[in-house]
Amino acid sequence: MKAVLVLLVSTAWTFTGAQYYYQGLMDYLENRLLAIEDRMQFWHEQSHRYYSEMQDFKKVTAKVMGELRNEHSMLFKDLEGTAARVDRTEREMDYVEAQTSPRACAKKADKVVEQGPGGLEESRGEAEEEDWEELHSRVSDCVEIISGIRSVKILKRVGSPKGMWTRDPRSSKVYVFNGTKGDSVHQFDSVRDLSRSPGLAHSRRISLPDEWSGPGSAVYNGYLYYIKQEAGVEVQVVKYDLLSGSVTDTAMFPVDSQAAVYNLNPETVADLAADDEGLWLLYAPGDSEPNINLAKMDPATLDIEQIWDTRCPRENAEAAFVVCGAVYVVYNTRLASRSRVQCVFDVNDMVISEEAPLLYFPRRYGAHTSLKYNPEEKQLYGWDDGYQIIYRLTMKRKLLV
Ligand SMILES: *[C@@H]1O[C@H](CO)[C@@H](O)[C@H](O)[C@H]1NC(C)=O
């Protein structure tokens, strides 16, 4: 009995002890949970704060980015404006240069020598006055001057960086003079034919009896006119019949000079231009002579009919061409920039300086080696760093007609 009582009492003790134990555990867990809740609350608040800070930061950066973008576009506009201004200033400077240079404007016909029955005789000053009417009616009946460049076509790139090409207005055949001298010429049936051709090897090659010198030849009405310059022999103009394949005439140069006509293209010994008006020869009268001279020749016989000092300087000249009895000299700089017509000389004295255009060629690859005018199409065949380029011109009537 006593043993049973002891057991009961001890069981009751144990029970009460367990109850206390569980109660403690519950309290502990409850406290932990509360602590975790607190922490969660804290983290939640923290992340919310971060989030709103992020939002603020985003807003600020967006604003700054927007401002930067604005500034960038403003800078870009400024740069564009500056580029345009530089371009305009460049043109204005060129123009001012053209206006103030005593030589770079349209020239009055200045006939310095005339071939009379007794040979060459001087005719200056008063004689010029009397010759005027005669010049007017005799030299050229053409009434147009160039007013601008309408369009440019880059046709092809064949041959070496320097060369010349031209189209016979009468036959439409195209002739390519590759390089700066040679004893052959490449013939194509048309501009289209050249454009489609894979290269010069696929042309008809015409072998000449002697070498042409410089990119200054001319082709007109089935005849090829070229400059022949051999060591120890005076420079000659040769007329070659493309149909029969033979030389039909040769003529000595008007002066005994080996000087190149354009200062920027030393290979151009002299430059020929042929059209209905006749055969024109541009040449340098001597090494120390600053100006380009012009001779008018009879295309049939190669007789020299008249000679003029164009008063257009050879210095910085790269090419020239003849339109309607007026010589347009194209200038550039030694480091090639924009080619421009900056000197016009009219044999009829009809292009006055206000009319003479200051004509800019679009900036292209390098500089022109040659520019050949085709009177039927009113376009120029240019050779620029191996590219064959066609410039279409716009014309206007001369004022004093
Ligand atoms: C063109 O001329 C250059 C040298 O001036 C030469 O190297 C080249 O072979 C020529 N091209 C043709 C097709 O004759």
TrEMBL record:
**Which segments constitute the Olfactomedin-like domain?**
141-397
Q: Work out whether the entry's keyword set contains Secreted.
A: yes
Q: Where in the cell is it found?
A: Secreted
Q: Which GO terms describe its biological process?
A: signal transduction
Report the superkingdom from the record: Eukaryota
Q: Which SUPFAM superfamilies match?
A: Galactose oxidase, central domain (SSF50965)
Annotated spans, Disordered: 109-131
User: InterPro entries this protein is in?
Assistant: Gal_Oxase/kelch_b-propeller, Olfac-like_dom, Olfactomedin-like_domain
Q: Name one GO cellular component term.
A: extracellular space
**Annotated S-S bridges:** C142-C324
* Keyword hit for Secreted: yes
- Transmembrane portions of the chain: none
- Where in the sequence is the signal peptide annotated? 1-18
Q: Which UniProt keywords apply?
A: Disulfide bond, Secreted, Signal
Family annotation (Pfam families):
OLF (PF02191)
What's the protein name?
A: Olfactomedin-like protein 3B
Q: Where does this protein come from, organism-wise?
A: Channa argus
